[in-house]
Each structure stands twice: as structure tokens, then as C-alpha cells.
Prior knowledge:
The chain contains six helices and three strands; from the N terminus they run αβααββααα. By secondary structure, the chain is mainly alpha-helical. A three-stranded antiparallel beta sheet has the order 1-3-2. It is elongated. Keywords: DNA-binding, Transcription, Transcription regulation.
Amino acid sequence: MYKQKLSDCELDVMQILWDLGPEMNQPEIKEELERRKSRVYGRTTIATWMTRLKNAGFVSSVAHGKVTYFYPLVNREDYKRLELDHFSRRLFAGSYNQAILGFAQEEQLPAEELKKLEDLVASWEAAGLGK
């Protein structure tokens, strides 16, 4: 099971797999990454990232003939939760409330965003969460 955070480059690769999967080979990943980032990557660079992602348990691979295809083992929502948990523990002593308050105090929230937060809190209260 994954526990570590992804580097920015590894996260870029995962975003591609989540967006375009379910399976992609290295040339397809390289082409899409170059399109999104407007730069050229070496074949070995992509291979290194794929090896790291596989060793960390984020992706697996399957061979179809001579071509290896990669697919995510971790879904986007689970990884978001991992990142949010790490962020809140690191900067807000594990308190999501403090994290949300920190964002709200740092920025002037537009009325639409404030309404979304109020609706979210109301749904939590209705479900008996957060008490």
C-alpha cells in the first residue's frame, strides 16, 4: 500500500493515467506529458518515473505482446485524501477545521465558495458528522 507522497513529475504522470486510462504505454504517456507541459522528455526519464511509481505501489503493468501498459492502482480520490491528511497534519496539527479556517482567513472567499462551505457543514451535521 502506498504511503508516500508523489513528486510533481510523478503526480503529472498519475494525472494522465487517471484522465486517459485505464491503460497506457510509455510512449502514450510521454506524448501526453509533452503536450500538457510543452516540453520534451527523454524516454529513459519516463521509464524511471514509471519504475518509481510501480515500486511505490501507485501503478502496475501488464504486457500485451511486446508492449507494456501501465494502469493506476490508486484512484485520484484516495490520493487526494492522502495529500489532505499529510497537509493538515503537517501544518495544522491534524485539524481539518483549522486548515479550513486558515484558508478562509487568508483569502476573501467569494459568496459562492462560502455558500458551498456552509452547505458542506450542514450536510455533515445532518449526517451526524463533526460532533
